Amino acid sequence: MSRVHPAGPRHADVLPEEHPLPPADDLNALEPRIWPRSAKRENGVLHVGGVDVRELAERFGTPLFVYDEEDVRARAREYAAAFHDGEVHYAGKAFLCTAVARWLHEEGLGLDVCSGGELAVALAAGFPVERITFHGNNKSLAELEKALDAGVGRIVVDSFEEIARLGYLAQERGVRPKVMVRVTTGVEAHTHEFIATAHDDQKFGFSRSSGAALEAVRRVLALSQLELVGLHSHIGSQIFDTDGFEVAAHRLAELLVKIRDEHGLELPELDLGGGYGIAYVPGDEPHDPKAIADSLREIVGRECRAYGLAMPRLTVEPGRAIVGPGGVTLYQVGTVKDVEGLRTYVSVDGGMSDNIRTALYGAEYTCVLASRESDAAPMLSRLVGKHCESGDIVVRDLWLPKDLSVGDLVAVAATGAYCRSMASNYNYVPRPAVVAVRDGEARVIVRRETDEDLLRLDAEVGV
Ligand SMILES: Cc1ncc(COP(=O)(O)O)c(C=O)c1O
Ligand SMILES: N[C@@H](CCCC[NH3+])C(=O)O
């Protein structure tokens, strides 16, 4: 069951013969786990949410992020049902805008934010503040003030400085925020090093092994203006192996016992974070939310029974697993360059500014010709962007049909998480629009940036 994050070779000049792709099967196929649930071909053309992608490109332009609204809502419902006796807080960092915040509220989820900006979006969406959790390893004073003034449900403290700051700000305002202590459980999550967050040698949380976590609990309890409600742990992201979650849950339960023994206090909540992997390429096997819920409930329950503790209320914080599979990026092909004996470079009208994950983590993606079907032979390709970097790669190795040509639309699957939210304006490229599709209708939920947007912050324009 241990599937490691697909972190391929980075920046290596991998020749096709050294890194053969599995033979292309059906280049037109849409593997259900990888594509949004509504994705299908009609007369050869990809449709998402009942809408023809050629129509989407024509109306809204490319590159375009397309979200299957019903796919996102259904996954949220499945998590909410699996954790019916706990809480599911969507991790907004995966992708947040007011529409998505409202969908997820309607489906019964709470929300995690990790910056003043994400909090501002949540508030603009009218998300109930008591269902918002505020995360971050270096929240500024201004952000903490904003969170306290808004009355967010929980603040997850991550440093001794933050505990002192929060205590001071709460006292100043005469409020008593609910607080969780983020614990570094020492778990080595099987994922890419950049997105593993519970081993000791990184910036998040209070170490369990050094005793810092218990010290943080002592310091929070010493401040009567803070209400300690539980412990938090997040071991990393894009994880397929459940062992890490199980070890973390076990270690947190042990800490709950120590806190009970030292302070005579049984903390009512345990937040086990997010990190559930999704399918990007064939062979990725995501977990079913119910299986995750059953396993976490069983581990924590067993530990609690063993130590005579009441079962705490469990919270999880999936981000990618809610919005990832429902999102697709549509690009238009601009150039097709055959590099003799190596591969064909297919350049599209976006790239690392709308999907940095390939360059950053060596992430793998699935891509198909979307505007038509083709029965041409497969050609070994690399899907690249338009930026001034040779590392500007969207899909490192893939098969595309030999008759692919300029003007064709290609679609990259499972780009709903950490693509638009990590997008940049590198090379002053405007960030793409985001469109929601459902029941044959499409609507813009985040509009495309314009040159005016790009110049808006330049203080000397026109001077
Ligand atoms: C504290 C916290 N919770 C939840 C998440 C969501 O992770 P994922 O999108 O992998 O579910 C993250 C991001 O990794 C995180 O840092
Ligand atoms: N941004 C990462 C996930 C890290 C989430 C933040 N803790 C990704 O694209 O996979």
Automatic annotation (TrEMBL):
Keywords noted in UniProt: Amino-acid biosynthesis, Decarboxylase, Lyase, Lysine biosynthesis, Pyridoxal phosphate
Domain spans labelled Orn/DAP/Arg decarboxylase 2 N-terminal: 70-324
Annotated positions binding pyridoxal 5'-phosphate: 275, 317-320, 418
InterPro entries in alphabetical order: Ala_racemase/Decarboxylase_C, DAP_deCOOHase_LysA, De-COase2_CS, De-COase2_N, De-COase2_pyr-phos_BS, Orn/DAP/Arg_de-COase, PLP-binding_barrel
Matching CDD domains: PLPDE_III_DapDC (cd06828)
Active-site residues per Swiss-Prot or TrEMBL entry: 388
Biased composition (Basic and acidic residues): 10-20
Modified residues (N6-(pyridoxal phosphate)lysine): 93
Assembly with partners or alone: Homodimer.
HAMAP family registered for this protein in UniProt: LysA
Main function: Specifically catalyzes the decarboxylation of meso-diaminopimelate (meso-DAP) to L-lysine.
Protein name: Diaminopimelate decarboxylase
Source organism of the structure: Actinomadura rubrobrunea
Lineage: Bacteria, Bacillati, Actinomycetota, Actinomycetes, Streptosporangiales
